[in-house]
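About this split. The held-out portion is used to measure sequence recovery: a designer receives only the structure tokens and must propose an amino acid at every position. Recovery is the fraction of positions where the proposal matches the reference. Here is one held-out target exactly as it appears in the evaluation file.
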């Protein structure tokens, strides 16, 4: 059975891109022939059985990310046409709004009957549009309305999209991203609390809400003087980052707060191994792979009490502490509670590991997605 997967341009090692490659490897193990159309990839391809089709984008597009994406999306149409002529393609699974438009346009132009599935990796721009993402918003609305099926990582996002766009509930399925557990060794015993390390791995931007964590640090240090905070992730909002650094300086946090910048996945994994707790006070989220990764390592979590996060931690009561992401004192108290209570840390660590093992192994996720493929293919043959 053939599956064409259109990657997120540009390819890389982010959470969404990583999910695409891990899913594709599992689908190959389940007997699917998987072809990926991508712009470039820093992910080690290895001997996975996946066939990669690289689309080259003119260098003049390098100056602006939007030009890169649009050029890539346009050039995927002939690549997809050539792939379809070369071999049977039973499903086209697209992972970005612009490649989604390309797939739907190709389907219409060439009168294909192949089902197009769209996985939405980030619902923030579609549910909270603004002038900076107007093109993405328009493209995403089009893909959501015209795709044969939609996959969202959490039930909360599924319900919001059904309500927001009036979508039929039969056209949208909630299937989370998984995690490759054989690459992770849970931290046990947990690190000593003499000099606790609080980790927040996420891109730096207003939606990720690092400021609330910094304000909580001012409160925490009064009671736990040895605590350190590591904020790991690329800067996507320079103005916000300057605001954070100014706050750090004005509140004498320079020796207690570290900004690492963008890091490869293996380096993030090293930080999990050293962390006393992972905090995730994000304002918006679609799934939050940080939660899944931290739980897999057995690191206690303090996170935002918002729908998509409740969908995850609600699978195992007591696997995380949820707080109001706009309340620094509540966040600080929750972190102190985790740091000071060894029994609580051990309970959260165990429950988090069990939750991930039961619900988020890639083999389980791939089986669910393959089941969705089968339903669409059978429906298409009727």
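Reference sequence for scoring:
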């Amino acid at each position: 059975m053939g599956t064409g997967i259109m990657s997120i341009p540009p390819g890389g090692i982010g959470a969404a891109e990583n999910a695409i490659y891990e899913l594709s490897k599992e689908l190959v193990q389940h007997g699917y022939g998987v072809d990926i159309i991508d712009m470039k990839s820093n992910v080690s391809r290895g001997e996975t059985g996946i066939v990669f089709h690289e689309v080259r984008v003119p260098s003049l597009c390098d100056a602006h990310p939007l030009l890169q994406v649009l050029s890539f999306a346009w050039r995927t149409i002939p690549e997809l046409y050539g792939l379809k002529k070369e071999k049977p393609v039973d499903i086209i699974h697209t992972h970005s709004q612009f490649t989604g438009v390309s797939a739907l346009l190709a389907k219409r132009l060439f009168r294909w009957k192949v089902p197009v599935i769209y996985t939405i990796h980030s619902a923030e721009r579609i549910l909270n549009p603004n002038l900076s993402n107007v093109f993405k918003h328009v493209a995403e609305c089009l893909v959501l309305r015209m795709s044969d099926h939609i996959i969202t990582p959490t039930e909360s996002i599924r319900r919001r999209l059904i309500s927001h766009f009036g979508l039929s509930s039969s056209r949208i399925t909630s299937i989370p991203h998984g995690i490759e557990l054989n690459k992770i060794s849970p931290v046990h015993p947990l690190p000593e609390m003499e000099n606790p390390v609080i980790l927040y791995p996420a891109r730096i931007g207003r939606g990720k809400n690092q400021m609330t964590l910094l304000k909580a640090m001012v409160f925490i240090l009064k009671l736990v003087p040895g605590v350190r905070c590591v904020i790991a992730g690329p800067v996507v909002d320079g103005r916000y980052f300057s605001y954070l650094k100014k706050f750090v300086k004005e509140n004498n946090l320079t020796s207690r707060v570290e900004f690492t910048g963008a890091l490869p996945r293996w380096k993030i994994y090293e930080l999990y191994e050293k962390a006393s707790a992972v905090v995730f006070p994000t304002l918006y989220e679609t799934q939050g792979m940080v939660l899944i990764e931290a739980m897999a390592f057995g690191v206690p979590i303090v996170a935002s009490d918002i729908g998509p996060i409740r969908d995850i931690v609600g699978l195992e009561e007591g696997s995380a502490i949820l707080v109001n992401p706009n309340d620094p004192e509540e966040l600080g108290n929750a972190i102190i509670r985790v740091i000071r209570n060894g029994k609580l840390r051990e309970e959260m660590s165990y429950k988090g590991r069990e939750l991930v093992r039961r619900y988020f192994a890639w083999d389980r996720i791939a089986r669910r997605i393959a089941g969705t493929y089968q339903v669409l293919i059978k429906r298409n043959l009727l």
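Annotator remark: The first strand starts at residue 2 and ends at 6.
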